[in-house]
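Two proteins follow. First one:
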Amino acid sequence: MSNLRILIVDDHAIVRAGLKTLIESENSLEVVAEADNGVDAVKQALAHKPDVVVMDIRMPGSLSGIEACEQIVNALPQTKVIILTSYAEDDLVKEAVRAGAVGYVLKRVGSRQLIDDILVVAQGNAVVDPSMTRTLLEEVRQAAEIQEASAFAELTPQEIRILALMVEGLTNREIAQKLFLGEGTVRNYVGNILSKLNVSNRAEAAVFAVKHHIERHVPPEEDT
């Protein structure tokens, strides 16, 4: 089996030298190139097509580690990028993930742990410093909530209430009685709901609503 090919990116020569010595102490890893700025990182990545890039996040020049990561991942989808940095900042973690990094590791990491992290990401998995895990989980949770809410963005509060009652299996007459509306009015609401959700029947609307957790988005009765 051929060695994993590694690109090291850091603006400090002594750091690159230390990383190279450490990485090549593992028989299955080979440093194929180095770069000291974002622009050169992209250039070296395109030239050598490494399996893994170990990259600092803050470097001099016109291209940051985050921006270089994004360009590398877009051009070389099979290449995995680990951000190796001294900065445990929430915003930087989020930016790195959005840019396509699959690893965010602090430079205080132990030598053996860094080797293991490289091997893990090369296999298609992600690694994050334990101190940063909560931040990423919160980011995922917020994104899921936004996606859920957007699913019902075109519905009025009353339409959301009616859809929630449709999920419960209530008929138009039962919904009308519960909300003190005319049955014809409910029928019109249901038609609007199906149209806005781009579904053809009540069953499909109910499935859509359950999938997107409508119970979290039903407004109180006083909202109209």
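Second one, unrelated to the first:
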Amino acid sequence: MVFGVLFILPTAYGQFSLGVKAGMNVANVQYHEQLPNEPTLHPIVAFHVGGLAQFDLSQVLAINAGVELQGRGFRFNEDILGYEVSMSARPYYVNVPVQLALHGKGVYGALGPYVAFGVGGKHRAQFTPKNDAIPIDDIHQSIEFGTKVSDDFSPIDAGASIDFGFETNMGLRFTLNYSRGFTNLIPKDLRDPDMTGYRLTTETASIGVTYLFRPVAVRK
């Protein structure tokens, strides 16, 4: 749908490019109205890989749309009821960003919304007994996306992202990205109507490299 709209978009400049990108993510989730004794969440390292289409509207202005596989998640380590609990969640999303980009003289910047669809991942929990606590088996399970009580995360994440970096006249682009989700990760049926402020949202910083098969000329 996104690519179909962009293909028919009239442009003043008329240049069209396809590219591939990959990079490293540092991902976490953020509490809104954190509960007492809630564990402190820490970031995990993941990856992203995908492709993009770029439509130049002028020498310095472009619209970018992409499809990416994004790794996200979080981890924590806490002492809970006589156990040292080490837990991590590594969900994967198909991420579709659309950005308005400014580029020229080697400098690149872009801003726009994204929508992401949960497609898989794993979560694990390790319980280390302290003192005389009874041993508990470790948990290794696939992540389930949906709206039910038995699900782990909501199936759709939407938010905004911003990029900044530089590009060469050989088609290489190096960027720093920050993305922030606006939707609640907690499945709908798990949400307490009396705790409307209690939400979890995604937060991801990344470093990426893009190669455009039809390079964007760097204007001097």
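SUMMARY FIELD: Residues 126 and 138 are 5 Å apart (CA to CA). The first helix runs from residue 2 to 7.
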